[in-house]
Amino acid sequence: MPQELQLQVSPEIATNELLLNEHVAKLCQVSTKEIQKVVILKRSIDARQKEIKFNLKVAVFLKDDSLAEQKIELPNYKNVSNSREIIIIGAGPAGLFAALQLIDLGLKPIVIERGKDVRGRRRDLKAINVDHVVNEDSNYCFGEGGAGTYSDGKLYTRSKKRGDVDRILQLLVAFGATPDILVEAHPHIGTNKLPQIIQDIREKIIECGGQFLFETRVTDFIIKSNEIRGVITQNGETIAANKVILATGHSARDIFELLDRKKIFIEAKPFALGVRAEHPQQLIDKIQYSCDFRGEYLPPAPYSIVKQVNGRGMYSFCMCPGGVIAPCATSPGEVVTNGWSPSKRDQATANSGIVVELKLEDFKPFAKFGALAGMEFQKSIEQKAWHLAGGSSLSELAKQTQKVPAQRLVDFTQNKLSANIPKTSYVPGTTSVEMGDVFPNFLTQILREGFTEFGKSMRGYMTNEAILHAPESRTSSPVRIPRDNETLEHVQIKGLYPCGEGAGFAGGIISAAIDGEKCALKIAEELQLL
Fold it and tell me: What is the rounded CA–CA span in Å between residue 40 and residue 20?
């Protein structure tokens, strides 16, 4: 049996197999020749002290130990070509993992996705970055793989169910992700690698008899006696099914509006909103690692920070070391920012959403919109930012822009318009704007006070080298679609399973994937397949 050890070692030892073996041999009081293999089980960085250490959990295999090669393989999925059909609306992580689970249970998924497949999306992402043209159905939020496909592939989750998390991670490895995601404390795939993994998942679903309908927008639900009977698409086609998983993501405003129009119960949900701050990565490394140069053994430094300001949380969100800021609008006449990193995290800048918790009372000016009040609040910020950055009338399409309002960090805290904005990683460009003109007064004040507090905790963070981009507004869904805690069906409509981030039941790739699986299992349970 291998011996498990908890180690704290230097970055050089942690990243060098020979040195790690020598270190473990000394701890075990054996020669290096007696060590067959040292397998890293978990890895994290402790940068709290001046001398940075790696925390490792390792399994030590001595010569007498049996060393079985652990190869992670896909389940033996069934062919479901002729099985009962279940509709899944949305091909994000919730929808894709629901589809895989349905196949494993012997049910046929029909995945309906308003956007394009991963290859088709690339052209539309180029159009929004270079030509400032927003395709409402294919962008950073909509399309195969959902918002995560081209916005980083971060896999960190606060889920307490370790078994569920490990299963999702192992499936991702089986589909081509690096095994390092099973080890790292904050696993990450990278925007350059995730699209191929998503494509491989789709091909496996199709191989097993599942079906994908891309560039197909759901425009209506067929409901009789408070039971779902199917959906209608934009071309008038009816797709029948009495089990529908609704996994449309946090930006599917048309679905929220459809539910509200049909008087299907939904409710406004608080979310968080703010800016995306970009610093030189070298500066963040210096702050976090307390060194002038990071060196070859340490990864680009992340940061995580939370403060309470005037009774509200202000915190970093979706922090991207060595990454870039991306344009994530889903309609013309609005601007939205997000961030991502390639797998090596080797870009010159670091960025993070810096957001403030909102409350339902903040949406009172939009009370006439009922359950959509939060969504309309969110939309108003995005549209105002578009106008301030140079957006013209929506009818003048030739003058569309995806530039965003920007301001130097210290200038923002001093209510001072920045004289100039240096080139940032945000490709469409920026316009110097006083951020106080973008946000309501209460939010502006919290951001100003909060950044001052950030600067006290992270010496060097408060600098005019840092550029704020606005807004970071799609942190989570502004709407919750309530469901029964036991059956996971909508509280009003039988057979409709609200799922993932868009329904308000997940927050990221892993938790959305887990929720998709949960809904698939509940359907199988309802059909007495378990």
Answer: 10
For residue 398, what pLDDT is reported?
Answer: 47
Closest CA to 58 of 98, 10, 2: 2
pTM of the model: 0.94
The tens digit of pLDDT for each residue in 115-168 reads: 999 999 999 999 999 999 999 999 999 999 998 787 666 787 766 566 689 999
Per DSSP, the residues of 274-301 read EEEEEEEHHHHHHHHH-SSS--TTSPPP
Write down the pLDDT at residue 289: 93
Handedness of CA 438, 146, 251, 132 (dihedral sign): positive
SS3 state of residue 456:
helix
Q: Report in angstroms the alpha-carbon separations of 252 from 92, 212, 404, 511.
A: 12, 19, 22, 18
CA distance linking residue 199 with residue 175, whole number of Å: 9
| Alpha carbon of residue 90 to chain centroid | 15
Q: Which residue has the higher pLDDT, 390 or 367?
A: 367
- pLDDT for 365-385, tens place per residue? 999 999 999 999 999 999 999
DSSP codes of every residue in 217-237: -EEEEEEETTEEEEEEETTS-
pLDDT in tens, 187-227: 888 878 899 999 999 999 999 999 999 999 999 999 999 99
Residue 430 pLDDT grade (very low, low, confident, very high; cuts 50, 70, 90):
very high
Nearest to 339, CA basis, from 294, 279, 387, 298: 279
pLDDT of residue 89 exceeding 80, the answer is: yes
Q: Where are the alpha helices (DSSP H) in 301-458?
A: 373-388, 409-413, 441-457
Q: Is 156 helix (H, G, I), strand (E, B) or coil?
A: coil
User: Is residue 424 within 8 Å of 325, Cβ to Cβ?
Assistant: yes
Classify 213 as helix, strand or coil: strand
* Residues forming beta bridges with residue 320, ordered by sequence position: 351
Give residues with Cβ within 8 angstroms of 446, minimum separation 6. 309, 310, 312, 314, 356
User: What is the 3-class SS of 120-143, one letter each residue?
Assistant: HHHHHHHHHHHHCCCECCECCCCC
Q: Please provide residue 58's backbone torsions phi and psi, each rounded to the nearest 5 degrees.
A: -125, 155
Radius of gyration of the chain, Cα coordinates, nearest whole angstrom: 24
Q: Is 15 exposed, middle or buried (0-12, 13-18, 19+ CB in 10 A)?
A: middle
Instruction: Report the pLDDT value the prediction gives residue 148, as an integer from 0 to 100.
Output: 78
Q: Which tokens sit at 230?
A: 């199917």
d(CA 366, CA 282) in angstroms, rounded, equals 43
DSSP per-residue codes, 48-113: SSSS-EEEEEEEEEETTS-----------PPP-TTS-EEEEE--SHHHHHHHHHHHHTT-EEEEE-
| DSSP type of residue 2 | P
Average pLDDT in the chain: 93
The rounded distance, in Å, linking the Cα atoms of 264 and 490 is 9
Three-state secondary structure call for residue 377: helix
